Amino acid sequence: MRTIDRDDEKEAVKLIDQTLLPREYKIVECKTLDELIDAIKRLKVRGAPALGAAGAFGVVLACTNEKSKETIKTKVERLKKARPTAVNLSYGVNRTLNAAMHGKNMQEMKEYALEEARRIADEDVAVNKKIGDYGSELLEDGDVVLTHCNAGRLACVDWGTALGVIRTAIEKGKRIEVIACETRPLNQGSRITTWELLQDEIPVTLIADSMSAVVMREGKVDKVIVGADRVVKEGVINKIGTYMHAVIAKSHNIPFYVAAPLSSFDLKRSYKAVEIEERSPDELIFFGAEQIAPLEVKVYNPAFDFTPFELIAAVITEKGVLYPPLLTE
Amino acid sequence: MRTIDRDDEKEAVKLIDQTLLPREYKIVECKTLDELIDAIKRLKVRGAPALGAAGAFGVVLACTNEKSKETIKTKVERLKKARPTAVNLSYGVNRTLNAAMHGKNMQEMKEYALEEARRIADEDVAVNKKIGDYGSELLEDGDVVLTHCNAGRLACVDWGTALGVIRTAIEKGKRIEVIACETRPLNQGSRITTWELLQDEIPVTLIADSMSAVVMREGKVDKVIVGADRVVKEGVINKIGTYMHAVIAKSHNIPFYVAAPLSSFDLKRSYKAVEIEERSPDELIFFGAEQIAPLEVKVYNPAFDFTPFELIAAVITEKGVLYPPLLTE
After folding, report:
1. 0.95 surpassed by complex ipTM
2. Where are the alpha helices (DSSP H) in B137-272?
């Protein structure tokens, strides 16, 4: 199934619980907005494009058993704030809310919201296929592509952005291998990227994040492709570690690509005006149930970082490959 | 107590089990060479200088209940191969074995070995204090120093190399803060470095390895100091991740220092001739008992990497601060 979808019969949002992968493949059903917000905060669903769809389907949940437009607006504000950094969550919420507001009564509002949410989800798949088409032209037969975090089908509704580019290239007959960085502290690379690539029988090698410099120095990497949580005026905000890989790639003359739908673009905003989510110290003090650092140690745990366009060879979108500087006027 | 020492009464090598930190502080006794080799392979004792002392005390164990010099030589070959990358293990073994060989009988050999092993251990502490003296001059009051892995007292017999520099600077009245990188995949940074710094009440902040680029970009790092497993003709071999930090530091104009005793020097050898230990895929597929990646995924897991002198501002030794290029003739 898709990463996130609606179950009409149960009137629920259903999603693949990504915190249990690769050990267990489990579908979670969220019947209330609170359940969905909790799933987002716990990263059961994550990835900028998937969060866009989650926001959209969340508005449908918000329209259930509500009597006033004002209450719905208040409720979805909480949804928008479930994770602050990716622009897609707000995008999905706002677009669906606007559609809902054209409804004359609650029943109509919910119908309009659901239509719009479905449209957003379907568009996401179509957009990713387009990103794949454009991006695959940048890859050559035999390329080894390093990626960070998970910008695959599990970060989206389906297909994926960075991994979508790889999927399309392979579909077109190119042989592509992937090096997946584990992506500390939550290991989306080891848990999710390797899992979804192996599902599709795409060759993948797992490394620790700090090994990317070594594989690049050893000539084992032809290109780097990552996703984006937000494309801003001066560059790209993405999973913590992206900036490091970009600096290292530049110093080894390896092209560094970002694959992102235009819904992740926020080009009028400076990265300085974007809230970088800081997550709990526990993510570095514990690993699962195991304590791996002193309980009293101070921790700095930003979930995202900023990479300036100077380090980015191109941004791959559904409208084509954009080469920095990206003009915002 | 020291990281590694001899218990005369029990005729055993005693060491702090570093795999249990920070949850448990436990002293392990190795009464046989096999027990010590096992402790080395499992990283109960690790760090290049500590491995030198482990090798030395191991020769004393090898001299116990043995009848021939040849058997002893064969036995210690296994000890030398317990971990291949750090030169200190071989150094400690060879030096102690040479001393032992002057003995006329087994009793004398063991005595000579023990004397030499004690000398090596004491020298290590003295050497680290000297490294601290020289290195501390490179630090300024108020500096924030980023370090990787553990080049502290637990990597040595006592005091530490990289952390020894910080300890001496603080002893001299400078205020120094440390940023410790967790050091995947075995988390020596989170498990050991933070623990030993907090024991000494030295301010420390823990980050994931991939965050070093961010803290450097944010201007939060004044200097980087790491240890070394081997200093070779063209640069330094140290814990995986070192090269990454060095590239990033260079690109942010942050001085990158290596603190290492001359016993880690192997300047006639090229890094290409040094075996880089590749450790088990399980270190990236599992975290403790928890599976975090598909069992069948391919893993690349080198334990060390090579950093060329071009990226290194200076090597701090017990004889002074050496500025590359280091002349080997």
Report:
1. no
2. 162-171, 188, 194-199, 212-217, 242-251
